[in-house]
């Protein structure tokens, strides 16, 4: 349903009150920083990080995990130069880890199957070794695979 002529648009509301104007300007600055970040950061790191500003106005790179933070710290000189090329002062850059509230779902690993020839070789090995914990482990493994094939 289109807004009626008397219904104020959200962007108009954000520009009417002085505190909201300041907030709107800050949001626009952060959105611009994020667009620049997406353009200069390596794709694998841009996916797990975002750019922000501290209260002092310094650039802060927030990462989802420590591995990304470590890599970004290595790349800070290169990234700072790229930001300066875009007109963003980057003398006081920081990298911080801020884990996501909802972690990324782990990818499902495919179940590996032991081939029929492999199972026969394991059964032959079980018969050749002396009784002990290794033979018991092979018995257990072969029993599990025999149950799956039924």
Q: Any overview of this molecule?
A:
With 150 residues, the chain is mainly alpha-helical. It is 56% helix and 9% strand. The protein is built from 6 helices and 3 strands. A 3-stranded mixed beta sheet has the order 1-2-3. Helix 1 crosses helix 2 (18-40) and helix 5 runs antiparallel to helix 6 (133-149). The longest helix is centred in the N-terminal third of the chain and has 23 residues, at 18-40. The protein is elongated and about 80 Å long. It starts with 9 loop residues before the first helix and ends with a helix. The mean pLDDT is 82.
Helix count, DSSP H or I runs of 4 or more residues: 6
Low-confidence stretches: none
Query: What class would the helix/strand composition place it in?
Result: mainly alpha
Rounded to the nearest angstrom, the radius of gyration is: 29 Å
Adjacency order of strands in the biggest sheet: 1-2-3
**Averaged pLDDT:** 82
């Amino acid at each position: 349903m289109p807004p009626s002529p008397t219904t104020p648009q959200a962007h108009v509301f954000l520009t009417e009150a002085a505190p909201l104007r300041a907030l709107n300007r800050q949001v626009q600055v952060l959105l611009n920083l994020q667009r620049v970040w997406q353009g200069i950061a390596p794709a694998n790191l841009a996916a797990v990080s975002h750019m922000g500003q501290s209260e002092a106005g310094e650039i802060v790179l927030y990462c989802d995990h420590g591995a990304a933070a470590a890599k970004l710290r290595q790349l800070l000189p290169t990234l700072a130069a790229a930001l300066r090329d875009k007109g963003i002062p980057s003398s006081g850059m920081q990298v911080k880890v801020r884990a996501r509230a909802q972690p990324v779902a782990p990818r499902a690993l495919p179940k590996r199957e032991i081939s029929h020839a492999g199972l026969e070789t394991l059964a032959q090995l079980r018969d050749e070794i002396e009784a002990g914990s290794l033979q018991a482990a092979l018995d257990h493994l072969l029993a599990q695979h025999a149950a799956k094939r039924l």
